[in-house]
Amino acid sequence: MKFWNNLFLTNRFFICFGIISGLFAASFFVPILFPVIKAVLLIAIILLFVDFLLLFNNKEYIRAIRRTPKILSLGESNNIHLDIINVSTQNLLLEIIDELPTQLQKRDFKIIIRLASNENETIHYDVRPLQRGEYIFGAINIFLSSEIRLIQRRIQFTEPAAVPVYPSVIQMKQLELKAFDRVTTQKGIKKIRRLGHSYEFEQIKSYVRGDDYRSINWKASSRRGTLMVNAYQDERAQQVYCVIDKSRVMRMPFNGLSLMDYAINTSLVISNIVLQKDDRAGLLSFSDVMGTTIKAERKANQLNKIMAALYREKERAGEANYELLYHASRKLIKGRSLLLLFTNFESTYALERVLPVLRKINTLHLLVVVFFDNSEIRKFSEETVADTEGIYTQTIARNYLADKTAMVQQLKQFGIQAILTRPEELAVNSINKYLELKARGLI
């Protein structure tokens, strides 16, 4: 039974024997063709038998190994490697079907390659997971064909691999390099000029050209007989919390990822940069109930702790309870901290309903409200319309976008920092805001 399960007939087989069957039918009308067609059938059967011997003569023809990362990054292209080795003495045509995780919903995966005897090749392909959780790769199915290609032999390599999908580590590393690149200015991360001297004293050093002359230490200069300047460093050990709204308003998808998943990826990126800046990173999540609460710390395992918590986060169907967030910010967060609140407001009424609570939170901490610009509506508002219905719909879309901009101004009127951003630019804009607030000495 196992033998028959691994034997497959190709399209060439059906075309060949289909034509022979048609010729046999035609020979009833042209009898002279009958001997010729019998000879052709005999040759086809011989070729089929030779093809069978070439594919089933040996036990081992091919070897295959799948190499996956230890973890996959959410929303990013992750590279998977297949190492294929032809250990037979003949040239083979390979049709490779890797059993991908069900979450990817990819049912047309197929790679066709040709390998000479004792040749090996490494195949690379990308997967882009759109959900957190465990992804299980199944067997590697390889269909072998000889040069005759009438039949195929399937060889299965049962190498199931369970790979977890975590918040995007790839994005975290890329933006870390940009944020700490002091030599070149890369696209996205802004270089913020320091304002004032609200920084911790670090050392007294010799003056070099370009140093701020206002930092000259005249007493040290007179003792050394040369110009000396005071060097300062950023204030450290500031508390920074990423606060994620898990309610239904964060379920809206853009480019395959929900707003909550964008916020989760950005929280990991921000937490990493905060720790690299010697500040303390923490995490809060809430909806109709409080979720994860991780105290802001600067320990060696803090980033792994935050990443594990983000991996487990799930959206909820209820409305967000901002009163609950206010009480949590009073009871759980000791000392004034920077709170990056990732949420979304689809109408002015939704903002006005929670604005009193946001103002109370802002008196205790430095609050930054991060919400989302609808990139699909913005794209529609910029299109050219030709009829009255299109003009009417586009006007509504532009009013919606104007309301979003007005929400930012309304928050700023009450001294609340705000970011209105496209989902794809969330991480970069959040980093820029953190660096700006740190450069201005507000945290």
CATH topology of the largest domain: Rossmann fold
Cα-atom Rg, whole angstroms?
A: 32 Å
Count of all domains:
3
Largest sheet: 6 strands, mixed
Q: What portion of residues belong to β-strands?
A: 25-35%
Which features would summarize this protein structure in a list?
six-stranded mixed beta sheet, Rossmann fold, 21 strands, five-stranded antiparallel beta sheet, Immunoglobulin-like, 12 helices
Task: Kindly describe this structure.
The chain has about 450 residues and is α/β, with parallel strands linked by helices. It folds into 3 domains: about 1-165, Sandwich (Immunoglobulin-like); about 170-190 and about 235-440, Rossmann fold (3-Layer(aba) Sandwich), CATH 3.40.50.410; about 200-230, no CATH class. Helix content is about 35%, strand content about 25%. It has 12 helices and 21 strands. The strands form 6 sheets. A 6-stranded mixed β-sheet has the order 18-17-14-19-20-21, with helices on both faces. Strand 19 (about 340), helix 9 (about 350-365) and strand 20 (about 365-370) form a beta-alpha-beta unit. Helix 4 packs across helix 6 (about 260-275) and helix 6 (about 260-275) packs antiparallel against helix 7. The longest helix has 26 residues, at about 390-415. It is elongated. The N and C termini lie far apart (about 70 Å). The relative contact order is 0.10.
